[in-house]
């Protein structure tokens, strides 16, 4: 059976590996697995021996915090979600028994960004309601996803693209990229519906793609048709039909408008 001392020794090894530059993520993963098995032998409910119990709780919390950051570094989204789910117990349920962690709001803010990137807006607001008002107003890690959610509601997509260069921590980049992909997909879907054709350069500008090659690769991924005029063409059948007609059926439109007016007059 592992003692607190044994787990603390493993944690120190993990912390040393995690702080190395560059990190050996495989080694960190192995140590995390060993520590998680050892931690299952501990009792994490507050007990009469407050000092010893607090050491166990802090040790477990610190391990889970590195685990959450490791999951982001390895792009293991499912593992990140599991680590955050466990950490919330220490952050909220045991808050009266533990000193506040310096990583708490960084990771809770990261979780808000994760939920936003997954379009889980209802859960985003549920988690936000658990945070103190002063933290919501002032903490940079929490303010960042809140601002992004506001930009999404406003449709200010350009501000979201600009926000990528202003993340509060490197760990935010993974979910920021996911959110940008989602936003870019929404813009692309709108382009497909709103235009019969659009210049390649204009598509790049609207999608916030920085090079000709990037927009060509994106267009290929969405099966867009690139014409010899260096424009993307959508709904080719509709475009051909419209060009063949040459003129709008103005007489038919006029007759329909007059008929609608007559019906409205009868109703009045």
TrEMBL record:
Keywords: Proteasome. GO terms for cellular component: cytosol; nucleus; proteasome regulatory particle, lid subcomplex. It comes from Diatraea saccharalis. The keyword Transcription does not apply. It holds the Pfam family CSN8_PSD8_EIF3K. InterPro entries: 26S_Psome_Rpn12, CSN8_PSD8_EIF3K, PCI_dom. Residues 78-268 form the PCI domain. GO terms for biological process: proteasome-mediated ubiquitin-dependent protein catabolic process. It comes from the Eukaryota. Belongs to the proteasome subunit S14 family. Component of the 19S proteasome regulatory particle complex. The 26S proteasome consists of a 20S core particle (CP) and two 19S regulatory subunits (RP). The regulatory particle is made of a lid composed of 9 subunits including PSMD8, a base containing 6 ATPases and few additional components. Interacts with DDI2. Interacts with TASOR. This is 26S proteasome non-ATPase regulatory subunit 8.
């Amino acid at each position: 059976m592992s003692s607190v001392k044994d787990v603390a020794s493993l944690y120190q090894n993990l912390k040393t590996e995690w702080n190395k530059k560059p990190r050996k993520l495989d080694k960190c993963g192995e140590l995390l697995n060993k520590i998680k098995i050892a931690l299952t032998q501990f009792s994490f409910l507050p007990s009469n021996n407050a000092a010893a119990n607090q050491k166990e709780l802090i040790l477990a919390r610190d391990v889970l915090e590195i685990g959450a950051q490791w999951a982001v570094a390895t792009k293991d989204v499912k593992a990140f979600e599991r680590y955050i789910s466990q950490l919330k117990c220490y952050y909220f349920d045991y808050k009266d028994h533990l000193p506040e962690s310096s990583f708490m709001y960084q990771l809770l803010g990261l979780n808000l960004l994760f939920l936003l990137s997954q379009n889980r807006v209802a859960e985003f607001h549920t988690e936000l309601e658990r945070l103190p008002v002063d933290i919501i107003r002032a903490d940079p890690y929490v303010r960042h996803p809140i601002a992004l959610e506001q930009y999404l509601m406003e449709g200010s997509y350009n501000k979201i693209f600009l926000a990528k260069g202003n993340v509060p921590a490197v760990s935010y980049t993974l979910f920021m990229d996911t959110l940008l992909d989602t936003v870019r997909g929404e813009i692309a879907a709108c382009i497909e519906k709103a235009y019969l054709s659009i210049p390649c350069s204009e598509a790049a500008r609207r999608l916030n793609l920085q090079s000709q090659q990037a927009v060509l690769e994106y267009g290929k991924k969405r099966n867009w048709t690139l014409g010899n005029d260096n424009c993307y063409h959508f709904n080719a059948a509709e475009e051909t039909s419209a060009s063949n007609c040459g003129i709008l059926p103005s007489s038919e439109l006029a007759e329909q408008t007059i008929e609608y007016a007559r019906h409205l007059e009868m109703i009045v």
